[in-house]
Amino acid sequence: MGIIFVLIQIFFCARLSMAQQQPAPYPAVNWYYQPSFGCNWNSLSMPKPPYLPWNQPYAKRDDYTYTPNIGGYKVHTRAVPWNDARMTCEEEGGHLAILNSIAEAKVVTELFKKSSPITGSPHPDFASIGFHDLYREGQYVTIHGQTLAKAGFGEWADGQPDNAGGAENCGSLHKSGGLNDINCGTQFGFICELPIY
Ligand SMILES: [Ca+2]
Ligand SMILES: [Ca+2]
């Protein structure tokens, strides 16, 4: 009986070891079995999947403006298409701004109003932020997959969203404080966020 127990432990240790060496679909794969003895692998040392940016530790940067209990933001004034903006924010360790409350929308809008003018955009009063309807027309979600209602802010600028030209599937913020759907290929300034206070 004791030998069978030891063999079972060795089997699960081996499985746990294999699971840690593979890119896991979710961190949870490490938790499904914790052997009672014999395994020294620390499940918490598992590297986080790179496609889950909100699971990674955020590092504070000097080029962001921080507001207590709201977050850190940076307005990029050199205009680029929405996806380039999204990647630049990730390269800076953050993400395109996601508005989770009226208070956050106010802070971000004020920062946008105070920033130097956007260059290289046909619409300098708009800045790309982190939502889109790329998955399904008219269903707006944040870059983290939440509906705008669930994220906490969904006030549109007058007449928006209008899916102008049948081709507006990316998200922006107007200096008035309202949201607007924009063409993903058009160059806009953009706002990155670090969820650090
Ligand atoms: Ca659209
Ligand atoms: Ca629009």
TrEMBL record:
Coiled-coil segments on the chain, per record: none
Pfam assignment, any one: Lectin_C
PROSITE patterns named among the record's database cross-references: C_TYPE_LECTIN_1, C_TYPE_LECTIN_2
The keyword Disulfide bond appears for this protein: yes
Source domain of life: Eukaryota
Keyword Disulfide bond: yes
InterPro entries: C-type_lectin-like, C-type_lectin-like/link_sf, C-type_lectin/snaclec_domain, C-type_lectin_CS, CTDL_fold
Keywords per UniProt: Disulfide bond, Signal
Domain annotation C-type lectin: ranges: 73-193
Signal peptide: 1-19
PANTHER family: MANNOSE, PHOSPHOLIPASE, LECTIN RECEPTOR RELATED (PTHR22803)
Protein's name in the database: Hemolymph lipopolysaccharide-binding protein
Annotated gene: LOC107224105
